Amino acid sequence: MATRSLKHPQAVTAAPGADEARHVYSAAAGEIERILGHLGEASADEEVAQAKHSAIESLRPTQDRLQHELSALEADTDWKTFTIAFYGETNAGKSTLIESLRIALGEPTKMASQTRFRELQDQEGLTPEKIDAAAQAVTEAGAVRAQREAERSALQHVDAASADSERAAVAELEAVIARNRAQASVWTKIIFLFRPMPELRQLADLQKRHAAEATSRAEARARAGRAVDEAQRDEERAKNALARRQAALAELAAYADGGIIGNGQSDFTLEATSYAFSASGQPFALIDVPGIEGKEARVMEAILSSVRKAHAVFYVTDKPAPPQKGQPGNPGTLEKIKGHLAAHTEVWTVYNKRATNPAALADALLNDDEKLSLDGLDTTMRSELGDAYQRTVGVSAKPAFYGVATCLVPGSPDERGQAKFLARIDRAGLLQRSNLAGFRHLLEGDLVRGHERKIRRSNFNKALKVVEEAQAALEGIQKKLVPMEKKLHERTEDARLQIRSATNKLRTRLDTQVQGSVDEFATRVREAIYARIKSDIDNDTFKQALEAAFAAEQAWLEEQLPARFEAELTRLQKQIADVVSRLEEQTQELAALFAVVDVGGSGRGFELKLDLDSGLKVGALVSTLVGAALLWWNPAGWVIVALGAFTAVISLYKAVRGFFSSDYRKGQQRKAADENIDRVVEQMRSSLGDNLKDGLPALEQKVDEIDEALGRPVAELRSLNASLRRSLKALEELSGSIKAQGEK
Questions:
Q1: Whether the Cβ atoms of residue 373 and residue 317 lie closer than 8 Å to each other
Q2: How high is the pLDDT of residue 597?
Q3: Fewest C-beta in 10 Å: which of 14, 322, 566, 692?
Q4: 728: which residues sit within 8 A by CB, 6+ positions away?
Q5: Side by side, which strands form the sheet with 312-317?
Q6: For the packed helices 333-341 and 296-309, what is the interaxial angle rounded to 10 degrees?
């Protein structure tokens, strides 16, 4: 796809149809790709780059859809012929109205169909009179055939009766002959040998006459059968002639007026069909769009392609009321209209008033209630489509069709319906009362006038709407991220304050641990040496015992102090971990709260996924806090340094005196012990304090690292918001450029 720049108004300056204008969609696609590419441009900060990448990936389906839309627009858009789409609900009358206009305006393919219709009609004798005559011939032939069959049947009955009568007469005469023979005398019987009895002659005559009559009846039956056969052949010939005409009617129907009109079944129109017209030398086209209700999945691409191609749209409805709104997840007609037609610059409503009886057109086409309802429809449509929406035009498509149709199949429902209307209203009257004449005037006049500017404005506006949708997508993200950044900043600062407060309190607690541990060290040394002094030891033993006490308690202190430090550090680590965990939860809650992005109220929202630092890195830093600090705060050797101040020397005088007085010696030993303990403790406090101060920077460095890591998500959002602002500004410039060029 070409990516011609549209940043500056001069980028596309040629007239409609020029290459620059034709490439407005590929140029817009290239600009959107470039601008959104800058949104995800590389960052030196890995976490910031990752956050941008996750946001871009959330936006990717929307971007892909916009790029597909621009590509489809470039493939479908017409820059030469002003195209009008008839769009609306299933069975609203779109095809009926278009068919009426095809006839009224002499659309070439319709004229060709009508020509073929008349040729076929003349060739096959498919006039109503000839079809009626053929049907009458079938009826008459059937009547003759029935009459002949009745005559044959009557003859058969007479023949059967005659045969029965003849058989009875013969039987009666034969009985007489038999009786006479039985009663005759011998002499009479001898006479019968030379002169037969008269009855025998009568029987022979009777049988001869019966035979002649049977032959005559057989001939009559044959003649009746032949008459029936001829009548049946005549009837069959009449039926075949009618069947041929009826078969030709099916072929004729393919060329009849109204072939594109639905039969009442849902989804009759499954493909979009474009019809070419001309008004005052200006070509224009009408597209019959499949219905937006019914099994839309089968026809959605045809609907969208038609809408992309069209420069103006007639929304056709048979309901004098605003389109119905849908439910969440189930868009209604109003939402579909807005989704399909929002990019158009000229949208009209055509109210198709149903009229199945001429009486419906006796008065004005629209009554007061319908006018009031249609005012509400106009208000609703204008609120959804803005200045692109024009107004409602009323028509009655079926009577209009009856007024212009001249090629209807004889005996068809359309032919009968037309006859019903024309019996009350002539053709000119139907065109006026149905308002087809007014609609035609609108179509050929105001709608097509200034077509070149309308084509350019419409085509550029479609590109503009795609760019504006990209803007809406980024604005939707920004509306989520700006308050999210603010809230996350507030919560992050609160977490930082909590961590700083906990760290400051740690300093106090560590100092307390040092002082307490040293005090406990002094107490333990004092108790240990006092116990030995009490056992009345000499000064040398005292010195050894004091050294041993210091050494023992030093070992205890070296064991206890790190454990106490670690406990305090572990407490701090847990406090920080809890703060980080809460902040992590809050970050995820905010991300979920602001996740759904609505693109300008279009219903084409998407889920924004932000790969912000969720605390894993901070958690890793927190987990190293104790170890890092303990590397500095190991008191081993601190006490040894302090013990350099120890001395157990007692003056010679005091030692001699103590030799003679046990109590005096014990007192001097306790005094020497206290002095050494105080001196060691003082230096120990100083040494531990200094070393504690030396260790705090290591802790503070870790806390600083945690503090910096906590601020990472806010920095990521801040950087992403800055990129969004730059991208939005670039899209705004692109939008203004396209709009300016479309108005040329």
A1: no
A2: 45
A3: 14
A4: 471, 474, 475, 478
A5: 273-279, 282-288, 82-88, 312-317, 347-352, 389-395
A6: 40
Rg (CA), the chain: 57
Question: 254-300: per-residue pLDDT in tens?
Answer: 999 998 987 655 555 678 899 999 877 788 999 999 888 655 667 88
Q: Is 622 exposed, middle or buried (0-12, 13-18, 19+ CB in 10 A)?
A: buried
Alpha-carbon torsion angle 699, 702, 703, 707, nearest 10: 170
Q: What residue type is 6 in one-letter code?
A: L
First-to-last alpha carbon distance for the chain, in angstroms, is: 25
Nearest in space to 217 (alpha carbons), one of 162, 148, 166: 162
The phi, psi pair for 106, rounded to 5°, reads: 65, 45
Instruction: Give me the residues of the chain with pLDDT under 70, please.
Output: 1-24, 35-56, 58, 192, 263-269, 293-297, 590-661
Please state, as a whole number, how many other Cβ atoms lie within 10 Å of the Cβ of residue 78: 17
Residue type, 596: V
Measured CA to CA, the distance from residue 119 to residue 429 in angstroms comes to 29
Q: Say which DSSP state 314 is in.
A: E
Structure tokens of 657? Answer: 């005196």
User: What pLDDT, on a 0 to 100 scale, did the predictor assign at position 267?
Assistant: 52
Helix, strand, coil share (%) of the chain residues, nearest 5: 70, 5, 20
Q: What 8-state DSSP symbol labels residue 445?
A: I
Contact residues for 248 (Cβ-Cβ < 8 A; gap 6+): 120, 124, 126
Nearest to 682 by CA among 458, 522, 504: 522
**Neighbour count for residue 404 (Cβ, 10 Å):** 19
SS3 per-residue string spanning 49-87: HHHHHHHHHHHHHHHHHHHHHHHHHHHHCCCCCEEEEEE
Which residues make Cβ contacts (< 8 Å) with residue 672, sequence separation at least 6? 542, 546, 648, 649, 650
**CB neighbourhood size of 341 (10 A):** 21
Distant-in-sequence contacts of 621-627, Cβ < 8 A, 24+ apart: 621/702, 621/705, 621/706, 621/709, 622/573, 622/576, 622/577, 622/580, 622/706, 623/573, 624/702, 625/569, 625/572, 625/573, 625/576, 625/699, 625/702, 625/703, 625/706, 626/566, 626/569, 626/570, 626/573
Residue 374: which residues within 8 A CB-CB, separation 6 or more?
Answer: 320, 349, 351, 366, 392, 394
Alpha carbon of residue 261 to chain centroid: 30
Q: Is the pTM of this model over 0.85?
A: no
Question: What number of residues does the chain have?
Answer: 744
Q: What's the rounded Cα separation, in Å, for the pair 466 and 604?
A: 13
Q: Which residues contact 373 (CB under 8 A, 6 or more apart)?
A: 320, 321
- Per-residue HEC secondary structure of 106-165 comes to CCHHHHHHHHHHHHHHHHHCCCHHHHHHHHHHHHHHHHHHHHHHHHHHHHHHHHHHHHHH
| Residue range 347-373, pLDDT digits in tens | 999 999 999 999 999 888 999 999 999
CA angle 230, 233, 239 (to 5 degrees): 145
Write the single-letter amino acid at 417: G
Residue-wise over 123-134: b if at least 16 C-beta within 10 A, else e? ebebeeeebeeb
Give the whole-angstrom CA distance, residue 717 versus residue 45.
Answer: 13
pLDDT at site 207: 80
